[in-house]
Amino acid sequence: MLPEIAHPWITIAVVLGTFGVLQFRKNVPLDLLFLVALLAVTFAGVLSPEQALAGFANSAVITIGCLVAITAGLRKCGLLDWLGRKLLGDVETERKCLWRMAVSLVVSSAFLLNTAIVAMVGPVLVGWCRRTGISPSRVLIPLSYLTILGGMCTLIGTSTNLVVNAKLQQLHAERISSLADVAPEDAVVAGERAQAVGPMSFLEIGAAGFPIALIGAGVIILLGPLVLPRNDDLIERLDDRRREYLVEMLVQPDCHLIGKKVIDAGLRHLSGLFLIEIDRDGEIITPVRPEDEIRANDRLVFAGVVSTIVELERISGLVPAVDDFYVADPHRRERRCLTEVVLSKSSPLIRQTLKQADFRQRYNAAVVAIHRGGERITSKLGETLLRTGDTLLLQTHRNFQENWRNSEDFFLVSSVQQYEPPRSDKAWLAGLIFACGMGWLVASSLFPVLAKTAVGSPATVSLLMIGLFVLFRCMNMSDVRNAIDIQLLLTIACALGLGDALYRSGAAAMIADGVVSGIGQNPWLLLIAVYVICVVSTEMLTNTAVAALMTPLAIGIAESADLSARPFIIAVTLGASMSFMTPIGYQTNLMVMGPGGYRPFDFFRLGLPLSLICGTCAMFLIPRIWPL
After folding, report:
1. Model pTM?
2. Pick from 103, 288, 340, 487: CA 20 to 30 A from residue 373's CA?
3. Backbone dihedral angles phi then psi of residue 299, each to the nearest 5 degrees
């Protein structure tokens, strides 16, 4: 254990070393790096083992883990996918697409994690681009930026807000407990400082975040079409990778689409899926017009890739019509999965139809769709003679791959990894639980007396929602475990520990005194300096780490200059989220980089003006809402 006088320098060296490794060793695991850094300051004696491990029990870590699982539950019930399909509706132009995205994404990302929204909406946008001929590079960066802006509107909109709030809860509790030891003449100042670092309410950050989000969305709509690249070759490359299946879906008598026009039912705008014809009691309706009405027992013939067929399954009341062995009941379907098989030369199915081959009896599986490379099947799937090389999409038991992977009947047997049986029968219940949970958090923010109850914090409300999701079978515990991102939670817990080391070692106060000495006592310049440091650090590092490390530093700068810490805390919260100029600062930017065919400079073209305008708005709003 090293002398206490060396603790600030050790902490600063560890933090700078961590940042340096992040910059020059891109492939290092983020969670491992922050864990090593936390252990380094712990073994040096800067933190006790209890203090080092406190981040793992932090409410922010619990809340983020729960929100990830809640989002997965909403998707499993089909709610998020339904919202994704409704996003674009009948939009046909790029400008209208950006308007529709701005309205829906800013609102939804205020209550759902950004990464989940991008993962859900991204494929929908790519499918829309393929249909309209508009390059995905024109809309995917706006998708990422809009979710970032929306996340700044509420406490749970992004992990950054939760990490900052976690530090505030810790500091506030420590300062309140130490007030008894403060001399009477210093009690007033100590009490004011303790109050300034109090936890944020659910809607507090939205006082500045919402106006900034609106202005930022306007910048994206106006400047996006002017500066974003037009990678038109992406459409051709996307089409080259498509392996289209032909699938027939039967409209069951209880389907909610009955009586609706095709356009109103949303079947004209499914991502990567095309409605070829409608078979109505032997009458073939083709081409299908938007105003054609859907009736019970219609057979809808689609062409699309595997992922789109998976999404088609999520529409309640639509089931594959090729094989009556298909399991449609949501409870039984949870025990089944989707599997692709390629027919071999020696397969007994060759030159037979599915009915002639007695497929159900032979393989205990149901055929969902058929793909024939380079050729569109024109006959009914049930009457199609199978050929060598045909790919069948099957609904099987989970042990099908193990039982048949070495069979001479198939060249290849592989499971469809992205398939999750939808629980559409639970969609309304999942939506009700989520809406009640969000309503309670909003009410707790508006009425502080509710925040003091047992379920007054985002962590306890999130845990309660998870419990209700599992209790009412909207998802099961394995879904919860699979959804939680351990790497993300471990990184945040360790980053919180490093931030605590900066505060406890005196390093934050030492750096703060240096900043104040260099810049002077001008509160505006100090606020701008803190904000700019956060924005630049976030572009090079990661938002949650910057939030955890900069919060104690910003508080130290404010108190060193005898200013209120609150506006500096808000500056850190907003600045650590505004990663628009590079793809590495925010996970959603990385998620759209590949599908959009972007180069790093493409983010800078729209990100620089967006950062400057949003930053100017932040510096205008923060001191007026939270006086210096």
Report:
1. 0.67
2. 288
3. -105, 115
